[in-house]
Each structure stands twice: as C-alpha cells, then as structure tokens.
Write a structure and sequence with these properties.
This protein is an alpha+beta fold and about 550 residues long. It contains 18 helices and 21 strands. The protein folds into 3 domains: about 160 residues; about 260 residues, Rossmann fold (3-Layer(aba) Sandwich); about 100 residues, no CATH class. The protein has an 8-stranded mixed sheet with strand order 5-4-3-6-7-9-8-10.
Length: about 550
C-alpha cells in the first residue's frame, strides 16, 4: 500500500507525466512499467553475475557485448540504467529512445513468447529529454525509498495507486488484488515444484509472481538443483490469460523481471469457446472479475450447462472446475453473493462445489480489503476437484482484520488475522473436534444447508470422564429388579464449548442425562432470544442434533 513519503514520490511522478502532456492513465502506467523494467534488468543482471561468481557457474551478461539496432551498434554497457541515468538529459533521451527501448523489445529470442508478442507494438511515448530526466530521477528516489522499507516490488503498488486516479476504474470488474491477500492465498495452497499453475484472469500476473516468489523461498533447492524442475519452473509452470493487452504487457515484463524466462501469458477470453483447456492444471489462483460486462453469446456452452447465468463470478467457478485436473486445487476470491445467492445458478454452482467436489474452506474477508477502489464484501474459496464429492466439514473463518485499516487510507495496523488463518488451515486436524452448530446470516437469519454466507457457530463436546454418583439404594433396586438387565454407560460430566467462527464464545460444564437433552445456550443473539437444546449420544457423548427455539422477550 502506498503511504507517506512513497505516496508523495508517486504523486510527483504522476505530475511529471501530466506536465509533459501524457495524461492517459494507462499510457502512464505502461511507460512507468517500461522504465521500471529497464531499471530491474540492470539489477537482475548484477544479481545473476554475483550469484554466478559465488556458485562458480558461467554467466554471460545481456549487456556484455555490442548491441545492434537498425544496422548500427553500441556498447551494451551504455544500455544499463546505472550508466545512462547519470548522463545529460539530451544524451540520455537519445540512448533510451534509439537504443534501450528497441533493445528491450527484442530481448526474447522466441518470437512466439509472451514477451515478444506483447512488446511488439509497445511505443516509447515520453515527449522530451527533460521529462525523461525528471522521471528517471523520480524513479531513482522511489527505488531508494523502497530499499529503506525492504520492499522490492513497486510495480503492483504503482499500478494499484494509479488506478485510484482513473474515474472508470473497475468498469469491467477489475480491481487489483492487494499483494498481502495474494500472498495469503499462495501460502494456503503451498505450491510444490511440480505444479502447473493458472490464473485465467491474470491482469498484471500478481498471483503468478507471488507463487514464483514463494517457490523460490520455500523450495529453492528442490527447483534450482534439478534440471528437470528448473526447466518446468522457467517454461511450463505458469500460465495466465487476459483480454487487456496493456495488462498482458505489464504481466509479461513482471514475470520476466522475477526470473521466469518464458511464462505462458496469452490474450484469451477465458469464458469463451476460444478457451479449450480441460483438466490441464493442478492449481488455480485467481480473483476473477465481478460485475463485468458479458456477451452471453460468446460464453462456452459447457460452462452454461453447469450454471446458466450472465454472472461472471459464477461462470469463472465453473471454468476453474473444468480446467483443473482431478485432484487439482483452487483458491479464488468471490463476492459474498456467491455464498448465499438464491438463484438457480447460485445453487447449482454451490451444489457442484459441495456435492460433486470437495469444498475445504470459506474465508470471509472484510469489505475494506479492496478500498479505496471498491467496498465489496468478498470471500476466499478453497476447494479440490474430485468429480465425486468428498466435502466433509467445511472450515469457515471470519477475517476481521488484514493488517491494514479498513478505510480508504488503508494504513498499517497491528490487528491481523492472516497469520492465524494460515496456521489454522495447515492444521485443520486440530479443528475437527468442533461441529457446526448453525450459521447466522445477516440477510436470512439462521441459514439452511445451501447457504454458505452465514457466520458459523460451532460446538465442541468434550467428555470430562467424571461420572455422576449413583445412590446405592437405586443401584441395588436395579439389580434386584432384573439381574439379567443391560446397562447404558452415561456420558457423565461434559464440557460444551461454543465458538463464534474461531473465537470461543461461551463454555459450560454440565452432566449429560441419559437419552436426555442438555440446554446449553440461552443467550441473546442478534437482538433475539434463542434457546438451544443439544441432544447428545448417551454412549459417546457426541452431538446428535441441535434444536433452536426463539423465545419472545
């Protein structure tokens, strides 16, 4: 999130472009991205050279030889940001316009690569040497500021902040996903070195970049010390589709700068018949567009068979199920309406997730996550494609805080549920002693089984192994009455704990009566008085049923 001095520097950068007559926001984003790419090429080249020296491996710098452009040649070293940024404005402009920019357009030798395809029609638009000089100086300041706060990737933040200046931002349902939310979803999925990862609405490739970074951090030795795994990582692991060529250009450069030599970034309408991918990917990470415009005539017929609708968020869920291999996993962001919507399409997609596959988790996020661009309420769905069901217990988590204030400023705060979410998700075996009591939805009250949108309330029943005392006269009477009778083991003393989501709400220690009911809750909920009777198994003490009765005040 752009704040403080960094925000001021980005504002100053925007002002430089505006003063130079470049006012189209997407043009500005493109030009900034090109220059950042040029800067990062220099840093990446230096880093690879150092790694090569440390490991004793051969490495040839992309700037080591003379570069030929249009029949003319120039020393490659002059194309490095660290060299030309100190030159006089006129000379710098000449080198960047005539040499550096043509150089980056032809960097990739494969004409069919994503980079080559989307850089081919890129245009250098900075109008004057003075504008370029000011932009370069400003970017130097931004990188210096980022280094101080130990944040290496400014690209997403720049794009995110600039979007706030576009009046029509989000017109197609496009809102950039905050990087800390992307990182949470990647950590939840914990990708392996063998994954085939896809984002069918990739934008600037934020999910793919985060997955690549996570793999570098957690599986570095497994990937980089295996020729087979390294080849897969560089050319086969990452796939992204989008319909915005500007985003594709930014995404391709983003991936290359992060060390992915040949990502599969394609211009494709993922929901149309143009997308023929079926059972191809092991992991889908995505924040598909909501409320976007959609030409129903172009939607793939097999997606409409699963859920006949014009709602893009539902169609993308159907698409994920189609694109995943059996056993493949998905973590995606959906608007809250997907969880509780009452239309046939909503119910059909929930049925497909719950009954035909394995829905594992629903993580409700606060509406402020996408501010200042939108106040939409969203959730993260985690599921596995099985094709034959398998949903047992769905793990619900109501995220209250994500480490930032939930207003338009989105300043860092200490409250953050994300570490708890990740830790709990990776230890769901410790959550299985809780049984779902009921869900309460602010839209529908206590929900039925089809509604995933309510706040979950759980009950945990623990046998305390304390048997109630039995009066001797009653025991002797029983024995005298029927010496051949049978006896039922009473559950004895139990502890009933109620949870509101993951937060312990109330706890009761009581004796469970034989074949009886335990009244465990008579609290005020949501301005209503509820009496909850918990029916227990007389042998095991486990929960058998819940009966909820409204009590008038």
């Amino acid at each position: 999130m752009i704040t403080g001095e960094l925000k001021n520097r980005i504002d100053a950068l925007w002002d430089i472009f505006a003063a130079g007559g470049l006012v189209n926001p997407l043009d500005v984003i493109e030009q900034i991205t090109y220059l950042m790419f040029i800067h990062d090429l220099d840093e990446m080249d230096n880093r690879k050279a150092k790694d090569s020296e440390m490991l004793g491996l051969p490495y040839t710098s992309i700037f080591s030889e003379e570069v030929a452009v249009n029949g003319r040649t120039i020393d490659g070293q002059q194309l490095k940001w660290s060299v030309f940024h100190d030159l006089p404005a006129a000379k710098m402009y000449e080198i960047v316009q005539e040499w550096v920019f043509p150089f980056i357009k032809t960097l990739h030798s494969d004409a069919d690569s994503a980079y080559s395809k989307y850089m081919d029609d890129a245009i250098f638009k900075l109008p004057t040497p003075l504008v370029l000089s000011k932009v370069v100086d400003c970017l130097d300041g931004i990188y210096a500021q980022m280094a101080q706060i130990q944040e290496t990737d400014i690209r997403g933040d720049v794009y995110e902040y600039l979007l706030s200046k576009i009046s029509q931002s989000g017109r197609n349902g496009q809102f950039r996903t905050p990087r800390h939310i992307i990182r949470m979803m990647v950590e939840l999925m914990d990708p392996t070195a063998q994954e085939v990862i896809c984002d069918p609405a990739c934008g600037t490739s934020g999910f793919l970049v985060a997955a690549a970074e996570y793999l570098r951090e957690t599986r570095r030795q497994e990937i980089f010390y295996s020729r087979e795994n390294l080849e897969h990582y560089m050319d086969g692991m990452f796939h992204g589709f989008d319909m915005d060529r500007t985003m594709l250009r930014i995404g391709a450069m983003n991936m290359m700068t992060h060390g992915i030599e040949n990502p599969d970034i394609q211009y494709r309408d993922s929901l149309s018949d143009q997308n023929t991918d079926r059972e191809k990917y092991t992991l889908v990470l995505a924040n598909p567009p909501f409320k976007g415009s959609l030409d129903a005539d172009t939607v793939s017929a097999d997606l409409l068979k699963l859920c006949k609708t014009k709602k893009t968020e539902l169609l993308f869920l159907a698409l994920f199920l189609r694109m995943l291999k059996v056993g493949g996993r998905c973590a995606c962001i959906v608007p809250d309406g997907v969880l509780f919507g009452s239309s046939k399409a909503h119910k059909d997609i929930r049925k497909a997730l719950v009954e035909d596959n394995r829905l594992e988790a629903v993580i409700s996020m606060p509406s402020g996550v996408f501010k200042p661009y939108a106040g939409v309420s969203t959730a993260v769905l985690v599921f596995t494609k099985t094709g034959h069901g398998g949903t047992d217990q769905v793990w619900f988590y109501d995220m209250k805080a994500d480490g930032f204030s939930l207003d338009d400023k989105r300043t860092p705060v200490s409250e953050n549920d994300i570490p708890d979410i990740i830790q709990r998700f990776h230890h769901l075996d410790k959550e299985t002693d809780r049984q779902l009591l009921f869900r309460f939805s602010k839209w529908m009250g206590i929900t039925d089984a089809d509604d995933l949108g309510g706040n979950p309330y759980y009950v945990s029943v623990e046998d305390k192994h304390i048997m109630p005392s039995v009066q001797e006269n009653l025991l002797s009477t029983k024995k005298a009455k029927d010496n051949g009778g049978f006896y039922v083991n009473l559950p004895g003393k139990i502890k009933v704990t109620l949870f509101k989501g993951t937060e312990q709400w109330a706890a009761y220690e009581l004796y469970a009566a034989q074949f009886g009911q335990v009244v465990a809750l008579d609290e005020g909920l949501f301005d209503k008085k509820l009496l909850t009777s918990i029916v227990l198994n007389p042998v095991t003490g486990s929960l058998e049923s819940i009966e909820i009765e409204n009590i008038k005040k």
